[in-house]
Specification:
This is NADP-dependent oxidoreductase. This protein is of the alpha/beta class and about 325 residues long. The chain folds into two domains: about 5-125 and about 305-335, Quinone Oxidoreductase, Chain A, domain 1 (Alpha-Beta Complex); about 130-280, NAD(P)-binding Rossmann-like Domain (Rossmann fold). It is built from nine helices and 15 strands. It has helices at about 50-55, 130-140, 160-170, 180-190, 205-215, 225-235, 265-270, 285-300, 315-320; strands at about 5-10, 25-30, 40-45, 75-85, 95-100, 105, 110-115, 150-155, 175-180, 195-200, 220-225, 235-245, 275, 305-310, 330-335. The strands form three sheets. Strands 3, 4, 5, 6, 7, 14 and 15 form a seven-stranded mixed sheet that branches. It has a six-stranded parallel sheet with strand order 10-9-8-11-12-13, sandwiched between helices. Strand 12, helix 7 and strand 13 (about 275) form a beta-alpha-beta unit. It binds NADP nicotinamide-adenine-dinucleotide phosphate.
């Protein structure tokens, strides 16, 4: 055991409905001595992701559920502070799924070095990390847009949605974003170049609002949130439309998903396609995707926005904020300098 003081965020209870801070606990923990082949990583930033809510349920998803009274794990970037692994040196900046804790020991097998000359370390949790890749693969592998098509993005002020909308703009599309405040929507249109943005919280008739800003219908619907927004968008899809299902944030706090209209006939009559995916489906293309995203950033075509919350102890609240429209852009927690 080293003399380092470690702190962990553990899952205290399985949340019912919206998570509460009382569902989490901050506990002290040891840092074990390194064995041969291992590295010691100090966490710099950790990512809070809506999808983690699914893993708090006692149900198998595409990953196993979090254990009660065990450290939560999620995508993180850190700095190697000690190495007994020939592939890593002290000082390397790395990405891995680490614990929500100050220090983690890893065997290095799933640890990836990151280049912080291209972008700051936190960007590897956002635009150059999973949210960026989800947007990129959704619009390259599943539904490559054609110039002039209309693309609607739900959850547009979030990490995935901002990237998806901007990639669709780069491809020459008309882009409509849906987000939960006028301030967020102004950012989408004025800073990121979205053509239109709809505030779903103040819009009573989402179908009518979408009809107004999509006079030629919807060719691609990039869905991050599901629920009633999606019910409305699906009524407006065009012949040969593609629906990309990245996530269903509006459903994650429900024990049973709410029952919406049955829309499959709409797919038949419009010869349309709907496809869900997890980012790992395209893992072999990660390097190519990150290279392209980095190039777009350097060319000034792709902007990114981060909301940085200070302190490991504030990670639970940072996570809860994702379900209360309080995050804006990629929400990350800064754990150490
Ligand atoms: N398929 C994959 O491999 C993969 C990987 C990563 C993420 N995802 C999924 O992609 C989706 C977006 O992720 P992200 O990282 O972009 O999320 P994010 O940045 O954390 O987005 C959070 C935003 O979602 C919006 N939101 C929260 N609850 C909502 C509700 N009930 N209805 C509508 N909007 C709501 C809020 O903004 P406003 O309410 O203000 O608009 C909130 O600020 C999530 O569903 C996530 O699980 C999928």
């Amino acid at each position: 055991m080293t003399s380092l003081k470690n702190r962990q965020i553990q899952l205290a209870n399985r949340p019912e409905g919206k998570p509460q801070t009382s569902d989490f606990e901050l506990v002290g923990a040891d840092v074990p001595e390194l064995k041969d082949g291992e590295i010691l990583i100090q966490t710099l930033f950790l990512s809070v992701d809506p999808g983690m809510r699914n893993m708090m349920k006692d149900k198998e998803s595409y990953t196993s559920p979090f254990g009660l009274h065990e450290v939560l794990t999620g995508r993180s970037v850190g700095k190697v502070i000690e190495s007994k692994n020939k592939n890593f040196e002290k000082g390397d900046a790395v990405f891995e799924r680490l614990g929500w804790q100050d220090y983690s020991v890893s065997n290095g097998e799933a640890t990836k070095k990151i280049d912080i000359d291209i972008a700051p370390a936190s960007a590897y949790l956002g635009v150059l990390g999973v949210p960026g890749l989800v947007a990129y693969f959704g619009l390259t592998e599943i539904a490559p847009p054609e110039k002039g098509e209309t693309v609607v993005v739900s959850g547009a002020s979030g990490a995935v949605g901002m990237n998806a909308g901007q990639i669709a703009k780069i491809k020459g599309c008309r882009v409509v974003g849906i987000a939960g405040s006028d301030e967020k929507n102004r950012y989408l249109t004025e800073e990121l170049g979205f053509d239109e943005a709809i505030n779903y919280k103040t819009t009573k008739d989402m179908k009518a609002a979408l009809e107004k800003v999509c006079p030629d219908g919807i060719d691609i619907y990039f869905d991050n949130v599901g629920g009633e927004i999606t019910d409305a968008a699906l009524q407006l899809i065009n012949y040969h439309a593609r629906v990309v299902v990245s996530g269903q944030t509006s459903q994650y706090n429900e024990e049973n998903p709410d029952q919406g209209p049955r829309f499959l006939n709409q797919l038949v009559t419009k010869s349309a396609m709907i496809k869900g995916f997890v980012v790992y489906d395209y893992e072999d293309k990660n390097d190519e995707a990150i290279e392209q995203m980095a190039k777009w950033i350097q060319e000034g075509k792709l902007k990114y926005k981060e909301n940085i919350v200070e302190g490991l102890e504030n990670s639970p609240q940072a996570f809860i904020d994702l379900f209360e429209s309080k995050s804006f852009g990629k929400q990350v927690v800064k754990v150490s300098e």
